[in-house]
Amino acid sequence: MDDGRQESPGEQTLSFPPVTDEGLTEVRDNDALDGGDKKVAPAAASPEAEGPAEKGGEEAVADDEPVNFFAARKKPTGPADRAVAGMPGGGASRGEEEAEFSGPSLFVKPASRGGPETPPKQDEPSAAEETASAEGPRFGDEPDESVPAAADEAPAPAEIAADEASVPASASDGEKLVVKEAPDADAKPEETRPGATQEEPEPAEPEPAEAGAAEAVPTAVTSDGAEPAAAASGGVKAAAIGSDGAEPADGAKAATTGSNGAKPGGEELPPETVETLMAALDTLRESVADLRFGLELPGAEEARSAQADLLTQLQDYVLPRVKTNTAPALIVVAGSTGSGKSTLVNTLAEKNISRTGVRRPTTGTPVLACHPDDRKWFMEGDLLGGLERLDKPSQEAGLRSLVVVATEKLPQGVALLDTPDIDSVVEEHHEIAHRMLDAADLWIFVTTAARYADAPAWNLLRLAKERGARLAIVLSRVQPRSGEVVLKHFVRMLTEYGLGEIDRFVINEAKVQDGRLPDSEVTDLRLWLAELSVDEERRAQAVRETLNGVLDSFRTRVPALAKHLEGQVAFRTELRSDVEAAFLSALSEIDKASKNGSLLHGEVLARWQDFAGSGDLMRSLQLRKRGRAAKQAPERVLAFRSAIRTGLESLIVAAANRAAEEVAARWRHRSELGAKLAEGLDRPSDDLVRHTSRAIATWQEHLSELVRTEGVAKRSVSKLVSFDPDSLALIFTVAMFSGTNGEGVPHRLVTALLGAESLRGIGAKALSDLRARIGMLFDEESMRYVQALDSAGIPDESVATRLYQATYNLEVAR
Amino acid sequence: MTTATTRPGLAPRLAALTKVVELGPGRLDKKLLNDASTLLMQAGDRLKLSSEHTVVALAGGTGSGKSSLFNAISGLELSPTGVRRPTTARTHACVWGLEGAGPLLDWLQIQWRHRFSRASALDKGDSQLHGLILLDLPDHDSIRALTDTEADRLIGLADLVVWVLDPQKYADASTHRRYVTELAGHDAVTVFALNQADRLTAEELAELVIDLNDLLRREGVEHPSVVPTSAVTGRGIESLKSVVATAVSRRRAAIQKLEADLHRLEQRLIQAMPLGESLSAPSSVDEARRMGLTDALCDAVGVPAVGEAMENIYAERSSQWVGWPYPRWFAKFRPDPLKTLRLQGVGEEIRGIATASVSAQSAEVSNAVQALADGLSVGMNPVWRTAVHRAARSRSSQLPKALSEDLTEVAPQLDRVPGWWRVLKVWQYLLVAAFAAGVAWLLVGLLMPDQLPPALELLGDSTTLPWVGLMTASVLGLGALSGIASRNFVELGASRERERLEREMRRRVAAVSTTMVVEPVERELTRHHTFHTALRDLST
Predict the structure, then answer these.
(1) C-alpha angle A585-A588-A589 in degrees, rounded to nearest 5
(2) Which of B215, B302, B338 sits opposite A606 (nearest CB)?
(3) Which residues touch A411 (CB under 8 Å, ≥6 apart)?
(4) Contact A233, A146 (CB under 8 A)
(5) Residue B389 distance to chain A (closest CA, Å)
(6) Nearest in space to B431 (alpha carbons), one of B388, B366, B483, B393
(7) Interface ipTM
(8) Among A794, B53, B89, B290, whose Cα sits 20 to 30 Å from the Cα of B359?
(9) Cβ neighbours of A606 in B, within 8 Å
(10) Sheet of B92-96: strands edge to edge?
């Protein structure tokens, strides 16, 4: 197979050399790999004794030459793949692999209790060096220092780190909290302790090392200097993240989390603190429950689900947890579909409690396994109180149920919860899984060798990181043949992600018998569980840490909800102001039209000319003579009157049309929801014309009445001249709308007849009456919009304020 | 040659889509429009490029064995496989039958160094794969894929997509929700390879195939074609090959794929813009509507009122000229109310009012235009309704002014005095003079018949006096009669004038409204009609 194939970079430009089985010529170049591989390659080629072997292992996976890999699989005797081929051998246990590949992060805990130890010592330096070079190029130059430091001299550099760190740490602004809490911050370092030294498998640690570990966290954050960072990387794995220099934020976060976890970790919470905390949480829950996101704005769906999440988490987890924090720890097993969650739980419980199978997704109902002594707590407790408890899984078990199974094989004080997947087509499963995770004290995240780069998996890890949840990672279904490479890559990804220090377990792909794995695969996990069970303080601390993480997350999650609500309120206000503005501008438009004489156009003008020119105007004025009524031409007066009515009507209708259109356009412009609300509202209502004509007719009558009753003013005139009040009202209207400001015939006529004083009085009254009537019409119109808005839901602003208050109270109570 | 029969079916639909894309801006959602033009471009490009080749893409999640399958089908180790996730970052292509494939690969943007070729002539039994371009895509579900859309792009471009699933990931939401559900209707150009079958027992495999089939059917894939494969044992590779070979030899996959894409897009278009009653909406403004608009605009200008005013004013004014002078003289002695009000000049001004010109009421004009647009856009999609309204109103701000100006040209001169009025006035005064003379004669003849000079003897002739009296009386009657008659003539003339005037004004209003309202509206209506016809053509 090998012969006949050769790399020929010179032929890169020939795109299609004929390829046959006999003579295969490959045309490609070296950078077919991703950046990570490229970075590793030179490091692997550094002058180390085991360089070639390592390189071979590396190339088997990442090399651009498929030939090699193929050969490696077919001919395991080749020198290049010794490392790979060697691994499945009995001696290379999973624990060793971890010890090797965690490198400077010094994740050696599994090694300390791993089975028979036959580590291929010669591999270790190069592996460590490789990881180091991937993390920070700086370490690539001095691999000899970092490795021994990791192996033997952990306490000493840590001490140096402590000394050196204290100054910059306290000097750093904004990190006071970290510094102050650092001496107490044994939560995080404690976790590192068991693995920090191989000589001391006991959890108890020499004092200097602990102090060093505690101090090293801020050091990593604040200092960029190679020296203390390097030392810290030898002593504390947490520092390994920070020492990248690229992720100071992560380091800071880790430090904060650690310190927060440590705060209540010192002693039991006094009852009154619990009480105030409970009260604050209750208020928070009520406020959150009161939230209503009525408007379908972008993000409303998310806000609603965030609200539901928050509420369920408060009820299912936070409240019960705060009430009794000595309860057994709930460990939730979550992960992708087909990653073997159920199989893992079955194996650990040594009982087939959760269905396994090839169908995806398999598990739909969460299954909880616990020690018989803890069963009562989980059956009756408030934890996950919203779920119906079942004794055994059944077909008709809904999504809102929880199967609780007792097994002697699980240690006391820890319960395992098998969850549905997070990434299958059945989206309800994702919800349940997240709900379970929300109630978890510890997360076990299960992924597989085929899946560890999946986006959903990393989303979940990100969530865990955000929530500050205690996390352990299980990489299952690892082909023994490729385990080393996969694990190394996975660890690198985790480290880049700031999760390098998390507890990790590897389970090889093995024959699943009766829904269970061979027991040997889960020994470490079992030990880990047992340790949690025995060491009550550690368990309680893990529980508290997660709880604190959740409470911390409220700081951002609750205000986010309040913010969205405020957005809704603001949106509603905006829409309402759109309506108001549009109709206000319509009113002012009418005002303007009534003042600038534009009403006296078209028919009104023609009728006025008719009225004046045909002598009707003159005829409406008569010298007072006994027994002689004023002669009228009723049809022309009536036509004039109706022309004025039509003119006013059309003015109002046109303005309302424009206003309606403007509101609809503005709403549409604002958002999709606005467009939906404005549907059918871009026209004025059908009743508008009818209402308007009625309003104007009434107004005209009102005006005649005014002229009749109040216009009898000038006594000097009234003795001599009589006038027809209806005609005079028309002349008055023309005078009012002609806008010539006291000039013109109609004005002079009415002034002469009525006197300036009463003219002003009638004019003001008539105008304000007209305005009031139009205002009422428009109010009716704008009510339609307000109703449309109301039907979409009315957000209550006070709830947002209450939310902020509740969050603040919670912080105070803590 | 085989495609020649199918392409004409696609061509009119693509032409219809072109129309839709052309007319769509402002009417369709931006994203939809974008997708439509992208598809149009894709289709154009693909049809231009080699029809002898079929692009088959191996797609799937990371770790499902796309590269292994790629190598197994090609029989060569072309694409690197591995255990690290994700393994493949760049698309690899293998071509069976090289000639003509270059531009197609360029279009697919496959890098030169990742192109391989099989000289199929040398292959035994692979001849039926001649014309195959096999693509090994990067995954679409790893964290790397979040920032890399290569797989996404090529899944959209490939003629036939082979979804490589594996027992662990076959039900992943990332595959199903994002692609399979979206590609419903692509049955003919989608194959599902259930890879890594070697990891399962026979019973497990059978169960899984059933489960997968059910799942796919639930998602709208009516006839899922599921092929269990194993790149390790080589199982199922041959059947997958034969499925691919069938598609390749028929040379139809590209067309089928485009047809399915078109169908999909058409569904979205129809959903965004339901055809409904739209095609029955008018494509032009009919006569009745034009009449209605003209009527409404005439009312806005006040055409009937102007006519009436003219009639009345003529009648009133003519009496000053052609009427019997006596009542006028008597009226002057009546006390004037204006004088009493100390408004002496106002009488003239009131007469002056009647000389003002014609003008249009802008509010009524805009209501008329609105009513027309409302009537035309009944049953239309809101977007189109708005567009019709906008078109109708496009020049409505100038409309009142244009109407006023145009109509002022024909507006009647209300203070006009025709010549025959003057003649009649002279005649009336002549009659008055004759009457006065007659009265004088009678007086002279009756009172002092004897004192007349001999030259005027005739006046005193008593026999003529009765005749003179009769004549005087008849002059008076003649004056009254001619006053009434000419007044009637004035009214008759005025009403004729009014008819003529109204006709002329209507004609002008109609002309103005046609250029300023009807024409823009009709353009929009035509656009609406064309768009929906294209939409209908697209779906047939």
Answers:
(1) 85
(2) B302
(3) A371, A529, A530, A532, A533, A534
(4) yes
(5) 10
(6) B483
(7) 0.77
(8) B290
(9) 302, 305-306, 308-309, 358
(10) A18-19, B115-118, B92-96, B132-136, B54-60, B160-165, B190-194, B226-228
CA gap A598, B364 in Å, rounded: 11
Tokens at A453, concatenated:
């780069």
Q: What is the pLDDT of residues A526-555, one digit of tens each?
A: 888 888 888 888 888 888 888 888 888 888
Asked whether the beta carbons of A759 and A753 are under 8 A apart, the reply is no
Per the CB < 8 A criterion, the answer to whether B79 and B100 are in contact is no
Helices then strands, counting H and E runs in chain A, come out as 35, 11
Extract the residue ranges of chain B whose pLDDT is less than 70.
1-8, 119-126, 335-338, 340-345, 352, 354-357, 414, 449, 460, 540
CA atoms within 13 A on the CB side of B282: 18
Which residues in A lie closer than 8 A to residue B146 (C-beta atoms)?
Answer: 455
Which residues of A, range 705-744, sit inside 8 Å of B by Cβ? 717, 720-721
Angle at A76 between CA A75 and CA A82, to 5 degrees: 140
Of residues A453, A615, A650, nearest to B367 (C-beta): A650
Q: Which of B217, B367, B311, B296 is nearest to A656 (CA)?
A: B367
- Give the total residue count for chain A: 814
| Largest pairwise CA distance in chain A | 139
CA–CA separation, B441 vs B458, rounded Å? 10
Out of B76, B211, B306, closest to residue A359 by CB: B211
Of all residues in chain A, the percent with pLDDT exceeding 70 is: 62
**B353 close to A747: Cβ distance less than 8 angstroms:** no
Strand partners, A447: A475
pLDDT, tens digit (0-9, with 9 covering 90-100), for B103-131: 888 998 888 888 888 765 445 556 778 88
Amino acid identity for residue A62 in this structure: A
Check if the beta carbon of residue A485 is closer than 8 Å to that of residue A60.
yes
Q: What is the b/e burial string over A118-145, where b = at least 16 CB atoms within 10 angstroms of the residue's CB?
A: ebbeebbbbbbbbbbbbbbeebbeebee
**Which among B466, B481, B467, B382 is positioned nearest to B431, based on CA atoms?**
B481
Residues on chain A touching B374 (C-beta within 8 angstroms)? 683
Task: Give the rounded percent of residues in chain A with a pLDDT score beyond 90.
Answer: 5
Residues 30-69 of B with CB under 8 A from A: 61-64
- Single-letter code of the amino acid located at A348: L
Place of tokens 């919800």: A431
Q: Best residue in A339, A343, A360 to probe B by mutation, most B CBs within 10 Å?
A: A360
The shortest C-alpha distance from A762 to chain B (Å) reads 20
Q: How far apart are CA A745 and CA A743, in angstroms?
A: 7
Query: Rounded to an integer, what is the distance from CA A214 to the centroid of its chain?
Result: 32
Q: Cis ω on the peptide bond leading into residue B86 (within 30° of 0)?
A: yes
From B389, B475, B402, select the one nearest B432 (Cα to Cα). Answer: B475
Assess whether pLDDT exceeds 70 at residue A338. Answer: yes
CB A611 within 8 A of CB A640: yes
* Residues in B 438-457 with any Cβ partner in A closer than 8 A: none
Q: Which of B178, B133, B132 is nearest to B156 (CA)?
A: B178
Which residue from A308, A323, A172, A309 is spatially nearest to A252, judged by alpha carbons? A172
Residues 6+ apart with CB under 8 A from A798: none
Distance separating alpha carbons of residues A26 and A23, to the nearest angstrom: 10
Please report where in the chains the tokens 């000419």 appear, as a residue: B486
Identify the residue among B92, B129, B353 best suited for mutation to test binding to A, counting A beta carbons within 10 A and taking the highest. B353
Question: Six-digit token pair at B196?
Answer: 């890594």
